[in-house]
Specification:
about 375 residues; alpha/beta; 7-stranded mixed beta sheet; 12 helices; binds NADP nicotinamide-adenine-dinucleotide phosphate; binds zinc ion
Length: about 375
Amino acid sequence: MRAIVVKPPKPGVEINDVKIDEDKLSTIGLVKIKVLENGICGTDREIVSGKRTSVKPPAGKDELILGHEAIGIVEVGGYGLKEGELVMPINKRGCGKCLNCLVGRPDFCETGEGLVAGTKGLDGFMREYLYDDPKYLVKIPLAIKDIAILAQPLADIEKSVEAILTTQKRVPIWTCDDGTFNCKKALVVGTGPTGILFSLILRTYGFQVWITNRRELLDNEKEILEEPGIIFYNSENGYDNLVKSEGKFDLIIDTSGASASIMQHLVPLLQINGVLGLFGFPRYDNFSLDYKTVQDFVINNRIIIGLDNGQKPHFQQAVIHLASWKSLWPKTTSKMITKVISISNEREVISSLREKLPGEIKVIIRWE
Ligand code: NAP
Ligand code: ZN
Ligand code: ZN
């Protein structure tokens, strides 16, 4: 079987033949899936560049199959899944020890020993075939096949919004006087795929949404944000003008994954009882807050919350949202997949795994 493999911690990526024990796998209650497509994400590129230190091949191996975004067709079904059905595998698996993992919520794993396909201790999904336990498979309706790959990154965001809204139950009323979030203002930092998906989800929940980058938007990015009414702000010269015209924000989400110093600019933009959600993984620098800002933070019940990874309920929720966006915002959804590369075009597959091109939202590798 062909697969896309890395040999961490060495940088680099190859498309190779790998051996799997099909006789054994087909007899232990697993569903056989023919992989149709993989999505490429920043994590894959970080692994390929050799910069992701937490990446680990399966125990006893020095090679890891890459990929944590996939859709495929059930080839040999059973356990409620029929041949020909479209499914998406879930990437994060439990540690098998802590209670959160044992009830299917390894996103709250307490041992830190959980496996993650394509990243940590478990082979990923960039390969011709998968054998998997049906409990880790999410059904995908054929009607959203063209954008279904987005359900994996969106699941992380669904979980994040759930965590934020659960946390905000601490406030007696955090909705508006008509019971909605229509008067609430959210700021999303970063216009990468996760920033865009976050903005779309928050619009779906009824928030007013601003999105920022420290550069102007490219044409395709503008077009994606137009239909759902997401407002862009160029933060190249800071956020003062934004706060002057719009006031402070009830919710701020950082998806920039760049400098940690951005936090010290975001904390003072928070409204009373507001939430700063950290979703991106800053890669350099640090931040500090003066005592007045910290006092203000305490007095006004503000919160900073870490947001990580979705599980099966969030994948299912993501599927529902993708299906609704196709009719709510058809122009937007039609622009989210920016490139599809055939696996036979090896050179382009490898170069897309190395480098993100300007304006790219989601690149798909298609297995023929
Ligand atoms: P991405 O494509 O690199 O997007 C980051 C965006 O932030 C880009 O649009 C970038 O601009 C922009 N940016 C960089 N510095 C900025 C600044 N100072 N102010 C405003 N915008 C800035 O990455 P992604 O795939 O969307 O992922 C975003 C982050 O989320 C990454 O750190 C990723 O590792 C993390 N992540 C977290 C989870 C989780 O569960 N917590 C899951 C998946 C991913 P340019 O376009 O000009 O570069
Ligand atoms: Zn990813
Ligand atoms: Zn656990």
